[in-house]
Amino acid sequence: MSPTNQETADVNAAIDAELQLLDPRVRASRSLAARLLDPEFVEVGASGRRWTYEEMLAALPELDGGGRDGDRPRFEPSRMVGVLLAPGIVHLTYETVIDGRRARRSSLWRRQDGETDWRMYYHQATPVPADD
């Protein structure tokens, strides 16, 4: 069964938001990242560390996107795909390379009733072994 135009638009909106979070300027701005993360956000990073919304934002600089791009590592995403799991819930999967290290990533994005913006609700990164 083919996705509807609305399903495709929802998945594309979540992909656009995910790509914004990978942008070094957004990662250098607490205020920009806060708009993309759900208040109930949780991440299990590639290191195995668990991050909450508050912990993640506290770890980011307070700059308003004014940091230099060269100061932050650049993620190189590939093979990003998404599926609408239910109204208001999109699941994305993709791979990244950063500083030569690969990771497989999975994100859940949600849009609350009455809201127009998608926010990342959950994210997990799993390191890819060098021989894979």
Radius of gyration equals 15 Å
How does CATH name the architecture?
A: Roll
Structural class: alpha+beta
Mean pLDDT: 90
What's the structural domain tally? 1
Number of strands: 6
- Helicity level: 25-40%
H/I helix tally? 4
N- to C-terminal distance:
33 Å
Global morphology: globular
Name the strands of the widest sheet in spatial order.
2-1-6-5-4-3
Portion of residues in beta strands equals: 35-45%
CATH topology: Nuclear Transport Factor 2, Chain: A
Regions with little confidence, pLDDT below 50 for 5+ residues: none
Explained architecture:
Helices cover 27% and strands 39% of the residues. By secondary structure, the chain is of the alpha+beta class. The protein has one domain (5-127): Roll (Nuclear Transport Factor 2, Chain: A). It has a six-stranded mixed sheet. Strand 3 and strand 4 form a beta hairpin. The termini are far apart.
Spell out the key features of this protein.
132 residues, alpha+beta, six-stranded mixed beta sheet, 4 helices, 6 strands
Provide a compact summary of the structure:
The chain has 132 residues and is α+β, with helices and mostly antiparallel strands. It contains four helices and six strands.
List the helices and strands and how they pair.
Blueprint: H1 5-22, H2 24-27, H3 30-36, E1 37-44, E2 50-52, H4 53-59, E3 76-86, E4 89-98, E5 101-110, E6 119-127
